[in-house]
Structures are given as structure tokens and as C-alpha cells.
Backbone:
DNA sequence: GTTATTGCAAACCATTTGCAAGTGT
DNA sequence: ACACTTGCAAATGGTTTGCAATAAC
């Protein structure tokens, strides 16, 4: 997940967000800052509930209401800072869409792990297919299902499963 | 959508379903038959609500409760007769997974239309990538976003939009 | 000072579930 | 007869929303 090289970005996520908000006549509030900071403090896939949990009293002193988290996540998506990558446990799963290279995911049926992989070749091929169909492609989402290397190992039980 | 060639199948959907149910010690009830018949009476993408609506008193005489439709759709998925292809309007969208060739979808951002396209090349490429990563691939889901040919046409308003 | 935003609690909505009555084998 | 199913209505659970108080510009 974190082994992918980051793409150098001139503007920080928070500034990019401020820019977007400005174009919409919206404000960069304290709460929104806290959420952006939280989301971009690690390059992990996340869902809304995780943010809410981290931004809860006992945990970091900072605190943002569930409603605001939902509202802000929506804005971050519109701003192009994050994007939906999958659905897990009935929840939408997001990832960074700013400052990281485009990629797709392997999703392990056994342990649910998302494994990112570079997708230039796939993207190129898809683009060709789209042109053949006169479809003006703007993006794609590819999820490959199966069993990850670790879960494929026979014998001893999979350590990842023990985390459950 | 319906321009794709059908794959000749020896067993009808209803029989395939009966088979599956048998392996699970379950019964092919009248309600389940009605639902399968409805689902396979046309090769269109659908969501649960559409089935419920079609299987409502005034419409065809047949009538199945919403709960049973949900339950049966789940079974049809397990039986490999249908599969989830996307989410639309907060609802899961399904399509036939039996009797039709594998394909992926273009999804128009403007009119929400799903356009199927053959995906042999894509599937092959993905399989290669999976092997390189030691991922034992079992399947994939590819959605390509953009603007469909019809919605790309300039000038006059898009007729599909008028349906809203 | 305006106008956008927050937090709360209530509302929404798709989906699931407990249960008593009904049905397939 | 027995176990599986149905339909109903209530429950669930993620997400949205109305509104009064509060904060950004």
C-alpha cells in the first residue's frame, strides 16, 4: 500500500482544498482542516466511520461531529482529493486521489486486503477500447478479485486472519 | 446492451436455480419461480426495486413481497445466475451472469446508461498482472466512466435527459 | 455584520430479520 | 408431518437533513 512512490505535489492537500472551497464560495473551517489533516496523515484506505472514530474526544482532543465528517468527505471527493475505491462492510471505502499515482486494486476474497498495483498498461488498453466505442472516457475503476499471495500459502493458518 | 450474442446454455435459468437450491436443501417455491422468470425475461440491468415494482398486484397479477425479492435476489447471486455490477442511486444493480458472455461496462456520467463491451483483451492483461504479483485471480470488475456517444453530441439537448 | 457551517437529533431509505401462518416434498 | 418459506411489520445501520447556535470572511 505504502510502497508506491508518491508524486511530488506543489500544493498541499489542505491548500488544494482551500482553493476548491474558494471556487464554491465555501469556507475552510477549523473542522474541515482537522479532517483533511487526519485523512492525509497516512496513505491508507479508509471509510467515514474510521475518521469519526479518530476524531472523537478521548482520542486526540480534536473532535468533529459525524455529520460534518460526512459532509466534508463529500467535499473532498468533489475537490478531487480523495475518491471512492470500493465498498466494504456496507460502507464506502476511500483513498487519496491527490499526490499519489493512479493505480488499481487487487482485493483478497479471504482477508479483504486491498493491494494497489500500477495500471498504465490497463489504462492505455481501456482508453483504446473507449475510443473504439466513441465513449469519451474520463476515468475507470478496476477491482481484481482473488486470493492474495499470503492467503495462498498452505499449511499454517493465515496470520492476517488472526487479527479478526 | 442486447446486441451481445448470447451463449448457448444447456440448462434454463430456472433449472440451474433449482439445482442450486437442491444442493442447499432449499425449495423452488412459486415465488422464487416468478422472480427468476421476471429477471430472465429480459437482458437488462436491474435493481431490486424494479423487480418489486413489476411483481406488484396491479401489474401482472403475480405478487411477491419485497422481503422475498431481496431474499431471492441474494440466492440468485449465490447461485451464479446474476451478479452485482454497480451501484446506482444507492441501490445495487445486477445483471445476468448466466447465459451471457463476460463483459465490462462503460458508464455514462451524464445519463447513467450502462454500455457493455467485450473484455477479452482486458481480462487477459489483468490476468498477466495478477500473476506477476502472485495474486490468484478469480474475477474482476471494471467500470469505465465518461460520456457516452449520444450524450457527446452537441447542439440539441440530449433526448435521454428528457426522460428525467 | 453577513452568510456559511456546525452539532444535534430526527428523518431517510435500502436492506435485514423475527415470527406466525402457509407451503413444498 | 416436518422443515423450509412467505409476508408483514419492526428493526437495523449507513447517510442525510432541518434548525438554532456559532464561526469565517
Residues:
Amino acid at each position: 500500500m505504502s510502497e508506491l512512490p508518491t508524486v511530488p505535489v506543489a500544493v498541499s492537500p489542505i491548500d488544494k482544498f482551500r482553493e476548491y472551497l474558494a471556487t464554491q464560495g465555501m469556507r475552510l473551517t477549523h473542522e474541515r482542516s482537522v479532517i483533511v489533516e487526519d485523512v492525509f496523515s497516512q496513505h491508507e484506505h479508509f471509510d467515514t466511520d474510521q475518521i469519526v472514530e479518530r476524531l472523537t474526544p478521548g482520542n486526540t482532543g480534536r473532535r468533529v461531529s459525524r455529520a460534518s465528517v460526512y459532509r466534508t468527505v463529500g467535499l473532498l471527493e468533489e475537490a478531487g482529493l480523495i475518491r471512492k475505491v470500493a465498498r466494504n462492510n456496507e460502507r464506502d471505502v476511500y483513498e487519496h486521489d491527490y499526490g499519489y499515482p493512479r493505480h488499481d486494486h487487487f482485493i483478497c476474497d479471504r482477508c479483504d486486503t486491498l493491494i494497489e498495483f500500477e495500471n498504465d498498461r490497463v489504462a492505455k488498453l481501456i482508453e483504446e477500447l473507449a475510443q473504439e466505442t466513441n465513449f469519451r472516457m474520463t476515468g475507470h475503476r478496476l477491482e481484481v478479485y482473488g486470493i492474495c499471495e499470503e492467503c495462498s500459502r498452505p499449511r499454517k493458518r493465515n496470520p492476517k486472519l488472526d487479527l479478526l
Observations:
- The longest strand of chain B covers residues 136-147.
- Chain B touches chain A through 30 residues (CB under 8 Å).
- The mean pLDDT of chain B is 86.
- Residues 27-30, 48-49, 66-67, 70-71, 90-92 of chain B lie near DNA strand C (CB under 10 Å from a C1').
